[in-house]
């Protein structure tokens, strides 16, 4: 009697904690992590991988790659326009994963976080997405509209393939909720620095510093601040409270402005990141 052939079980990708290794290294060097955000496919899909390498060359420690979406509710006008440009150029989630795989051909060490919204992931299928993301070389996934308790299957899929679920905390998060998010988060905690969308300039540093100190009571994970972080002076105010900061809208604006002026986006991104990195390292040096 012939045996029934079943589909092979796809093994989980062996875990490699690039995120943890990155923050351990930063702590040993007494440096603050610099996380850069760009929207995949903006200004054109063919430029995303070169831009990722340019950001690392300029001093980025972690790359956040935005998955373009038609209704980016948490994003301000700058990143909304970047999503529109990327979608108009035909960028899809599958293409974004291919971009990460292309980046990994030259860079096996820099952590890559996908940041976006739940809809494209569900359209691909959560298990299929997790498998493809892990094989492409993604390290973490941050979905801004994913309450973790409402999507246990997605969290399980991410865990199976050693993908870190990066969870958000906000100024409006009550402490009881904060404790639960800290319990479920992996990789690092992302603190939304203000009540508003990305790119806002209404940052209340005193309140932010106070809230970061509270989060420290509930988690030993690295703590990263994003939304409204635009310059070295703002970053300096967070010294000793945050382990890293995310630079997003200011960088996306820089790239868009370079395109308008006829400057190569790769050059603009490298110069932007290198200048910020040098300012931070000089200011934070003992």
Radius of gyration: 19 Å
Q: How many β strands by DSSP?
A: 9
Read across the widest sheet, the strand sequence of neighbours is 5-4-3-2-1-9-8-7-6
Any idea what the CATH superfamily of the domain at 18-22 and 30-166 and 238-284 is called? Answer: Aldolase class I
Q: Write down the CATH class of the domain at 18-22 and 30-166 and 238-284.
A: Alpha Beta
Q: List the quaternary state of the chains.
A: single chain
Please tell me what the overall shape is.
globular
Average of pLDDT: 87
Query: Which architecture name of the domain at 18-22 and 30-166 and 238-284 does CATH use?
Result: Alpha-Beta Barrel
Structural class by SSE content:
alpha/beta
Stretches where pLDDT falls below 50 for ≥5 residues? Answer: 1-14, 196-200
- Percent strand equals 5-15%
Share in helix: 40-55%
Alpha-carbon distance between the two ends? 74 Å
Give a quick precis of the structure:
With 286 residues, the protein is of the alpha/beta class. The protein has 12 helices and 9 strands. It has a domain of 189 residues: Alpha-Beta Barrel (TIM Barrel), CATH 3.20.20.
Structural features, described:
With 286 residues, this protein is of the alpha/beta class. It has a domain at 18-22 and 30-166 and 238-284: Alpha-Beta Barrel (TIM Barrel). It has helices at 18-28, 48-58, 77-88, 93-104, 118-124, 126-136, 152-160, 175-184, 205-215, 232-237, 249-261, 265-284, and strands at residues 33-39, 62-66, 112-116, 140-143, 164-165, 167-169, 189-192, 223-226, 244-247. A nine-stranded parallel sheet has the order 5-4-3-2-1-9-8-7-6. Helix 7 links the parallel strand 4 and strand 5. Helix 2 runs parallel beside helix 12 (265-284). It is globular.
């Amino acid at each position: 009697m012939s045996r029934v052939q079943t589909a092979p079980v796809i093994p989980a990708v062996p875990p490699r904690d690039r995120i943890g290794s990155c923050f351990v290294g930063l702590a040993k060097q007494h440096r603050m992590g610099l996380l850069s955000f760009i929207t995949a496919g903006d200004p054109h899909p063919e430029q995303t991988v070169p831009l990722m390498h340019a950001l690392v060359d300029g001093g980025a420690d972690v790359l956040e790659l935005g998955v373009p979406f038609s209704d980016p509710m948490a994003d301000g006008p700058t990143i909304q326009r970047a999503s529109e440009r990327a979608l108009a150029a035909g960028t899809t989630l599958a293409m974004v994963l291919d971009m990460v795989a292309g980046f990994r051909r030259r860079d096996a060490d820099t952590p890559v976080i996908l940041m976006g919204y739940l809809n494209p992931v569900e359209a691909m299928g959560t298990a299929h997405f997790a498998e493809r993301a892990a094989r492409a070389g993604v390290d973490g996934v941050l979905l801004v509209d994913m309450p973790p308790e409402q999507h246990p299957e997605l969290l399980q899929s991410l865990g199976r393939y050693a993908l870190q679920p990066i969870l958000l905390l906000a100024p409006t998060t009550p402490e009881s909720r904060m404790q639960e998010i800290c319990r479920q988060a992996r990789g690092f905690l992302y603190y939304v620095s203000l009540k508003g969308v990305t790119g806002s300039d209404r940052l209340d540093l005193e309140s932010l510093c106070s809230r970061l100190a509270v989060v420290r009571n509930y988690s030993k994970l690295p703590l990263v601040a994003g939304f409204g972080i635009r310059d070295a002076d703002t970053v300096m105010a967070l010294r000793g409270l945050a382990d890293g900061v995310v630079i997003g809208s200011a960088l996306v604006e820089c790239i868009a402005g370079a395109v308008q002026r006829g400057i190569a986006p790769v050059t603009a991104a490298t110069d932007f990141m290198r200048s910020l990195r040098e300012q931070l390292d000089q200011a934070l040096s003992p």
